[in-house]
Amino acid sequence: MPVTLEDVRHAAELLDGVVERTGLYHSRALEQLVGAPVWLKAENLQRAGSFKVRGAYVRMAKLSEEERARGVVAASAGNHAQGVAQAAKRLGIKARIYMPLGVALPKLAATRDHGAEVILHGDTVDQALAAAEEYAKSSGAVFVHPFDHSDIIAGQGTIGLEILEQYPDVETVIMGVGGGGLLAGTAVALKGRAAELGRTINVVGVQAENAAAYPPSLAADALVPLKRVRTIADGIAVGRPGQLPFQIIRELVDDVVTVSEDALARALVFLLERSKLVVEPAGAVGVAALLEGTLAAAGFEPSKTVVVLSGGNIDPLLMLKVIQRGLAAAGRYITVRMMLQDRPGELATISRVMAENDANVTRVDHTRIGGELSMGEVAITIDMETKGAAHSELVLQALREVGYEPLIIN
């Protein structure tokens, strides 16, 4: 293994007093859903808002004085950038961070606030990475990779040691996967300690289905890059697994599963409502897997589970969109389109039916123009809030009973 349990233990010593020992919170709602205890490891409450500072600090703390004098360079869409910037500030190292042009403004501002020089370059993280690597070659600055380095992996693995100290009886640990540094490091820690204790711990990674490079790579036993990555979980939107993490994950991790975009949105809303935690989509993928029943479908029995909430750095504008999508996925926010006769009283009838069935109308669009409309017909589109999928169906059935044919269009 390129990283050992002793490497992770040494990383934990370096991080003592530097990072937060984040809390482990019981989720009664998830326990009722899966039929076993579920705890949430809140790395979204870590310094800089994610686990990334762990690996970044370990990598940079082990640099020589000569390397520190040359400075460091990194590339990231947000979490790694903030982790490197914070670690550099603490260690007194000059940091230059490349970020893609479309980076969320809160992540950009936070990175600058930690004292790093930020260069906006390219439309994707891969383009920013290429620019950072080129700068490292031309300037002599030390390139701090977001996941493909043994010190980074060891630093992230300290989460595994904390989980076992906080919940010694844990049987399954779930977390998101992008390049694989967090999953690889945590697997080294958990599997290594489990072997010492003479017991078994399942380690499961979760990817967004539109950014899932690990399942095909593991199936082929080789790195298989994706041609396209598209997901709301920007923190794990990585098109190619890291070489070192892949070697570890291939050997130690029990499975890597995927979840839908709707499940990601539902998970974020679930954590807001039921756990009072602000978590970015990439940090919520483990909860999404439980909500969607993905682990059960993959053959895992209910067990004492910890889900790593890897980050909480979310742009408020993205949060608004994700919440809306999450409500829609849960059947609590629907858009309905209906055809009706262009005559007085039709809107009043629809309003009465919805009021009687306790649906809250938030928007109405009424038009007489459209290729699908016959003479004397109008189309009406209604956005409404309901109490869930069952209540939505009750409202739709009530509309059908008075002669309308509602069609859900979201």
Determine the fraction of residues in helical runs and give it as a percent range: 40-55%
Domain count, please report it.
3
Strand content: 15-25%
Order of strands, main sheet, comes to 1-2-10-7-8-9
Count the beta strands.
14
Calculate Rg over CA atoms: 24 Å
* Low-pLDDT windows of residues: none
Organism: Galactobacter valiniphilus
Enzyme class: lyase
GO biological process, one term: L-serine catabolic process
Keywords: Lyase, Pyridoxal phosphate
Task: Tell me what the structure shows.
This protein has 410 residues and is α/β, with parallel strands linked by helices. The protein contains 17 helices and 14 strands. It has a six-stranded mixed beta sheet with strand order 1-2-10-7-8-9. Helix 1 packs across helix 8, helix 5 packs parallel to helix 6 and helix 9 packs parallel to helix 11. InterPro entries: ACT-like_dom_sf, ACT_dom, ACT_ThrD-II-like, Ser/Thr_Dehydratase, Thr_deHydtase_catblc, TrpB-like_PALP, TrpB-like_PALP_sf. It catalyses: L-threonine = 2-oxobutanoate + NH4(+). This is threonine ammonia-lyase. Its EC number is 4.3.1.19.
Can you give keywords for this protein?
410 residues; alpha/beta; Rossmann fold; Alpha-Beta Plaits; 3 domains; six-stranded mixed beta sheet; four-stranded parallel beta sheet; 17 helices; 14 strands; 46% helix
Give a brief description:
Helix content is 46%, strand content 18%.
Secondary structure: elements and pairs:
Blueprint: H1 5-15, E1 24-26, H2 28-34, E2 38-42, H3 52-61, H4 65-70, E3 72-75, H5 79-91, E4 95-99, H6 105-113, E5 117-120, H7 125-139, E6 142-143, H8 150-166, E7 172-176, H9 181-197, E8 202-208, H10 214-220, H11 243-252, E9 255-259, H12 261-275, H13 285-292, H14 294-297, E10 305-309, H15 316-329, E11 333-341, H16 346-356, E12 360-367, E13 377-385, H17 389-401, E14 407-408
Parallel strand pairs: 2-10, 3-4, 3-6, 4-5, 7-8, 7-10, 8-9
Antiparallel strand pairs: 1-2, 11-13, 11-14, 12-13
